[in-house]
Amino acid sequence: MSVICKVDGKEFKDEKSLHFALKSYGLNKVKYYQKYYERRDLLTGELINFKTKEQYLNSDFNDKNNMKKWLKEQPLEKTQEYCKNILIKRKENKGIIYSPSQIELRTIMAPSIIFYNKIFKDYYDICSSIGLENKFIHPNLLNDNFKNKLNKKDTIYVDTREQSWLKFDIPFEIKTLPFGDYACSNDNCSCFIERKSLSDFISTLSVKNYDK
User: Is 34 helix (H, G, I), strand (E, B) or coil?
Assistant: First the structure.
């Protein structure tokens, strides 16, 4: 697809040819896009740092701290609209069908799931409203009869290898678990919980051939 140079209106057969010709104008890609496609940080008003064309044209902030500060300064409705549009653009540009995970949100200029829950009450509800599925919801969780409440008669089992235990309001017992770090004596809560640091979790999801 041909592209038009913003400097003098000259037509080039493709973007690569345009970029190669920028030297003849005394420009490089950074200067070209920052001058003719000016984008500024919504918080500071500074020019958006250029890394790639796609990144530059789709960035409103130079870092997440600026994004967080700006979002906190906006009326709730504007904050909701902006955060919802992040998901919509992600869906349209990348063709995703599942709600972005916490890890995926960390790799792009987007708030955390915790922040989405704060402004929308439920992150997955807002994802569902724009046609994104939640890959990690088990069908049983959608059943109205599903109960996941523990009582004082239940016991939390903590694996012997767990270094720093979480605090609970019900009794817990240290024992060797076949897998996972935590389990429960309640038959209605037949699940095991694997506790990981964020870096370890990211490493686990990054294993080659893992279906994300």
Answer: helix
Is residue 36 within 8 Å of residue 3, measured between CB atoms? no
Q: What is the largest CA-CA distance in the chain?
A: 78
Distance CA 60, CA 63 (A): 9
Give the confidence band of 118 by pLDDT, cuts at 50, 70, 90.
Answer: very high
On the question of pLDDT at 136 being above 70, the answer is no
CA distance 177 to 183: 8
DSSP class per residue in 99-167: PPPHHHHHHTT---HHHHHHHHS-HHHHHHHTT-B-TT--GGGG-TT------TT--EEEETT-SSPPP
Question: Which residue in 36, 28, 30 sits closest to 9, CA to CA?
Answer: 36
User: What is the 8-class DSSP label of residue 79?
Assistant: H
Cα distance between residue 170 and residue 155, in whole Å? 7
Task: Locate 65 and state its tokens.
Answer: 């701290």
Per residue in 176-188, pLDDT (tens digit) is 888 888 888 776 6
Ordered DSSP codes for 171-199 = -EEEE--SSSSEEES-GGG---B----HH
Residue with more model confidence, 43 or 138: 43
CA distances to 144, 152, 167 from 188, in Å: 14, 14, 21
Q: Model-level pTM?
A: 0.67
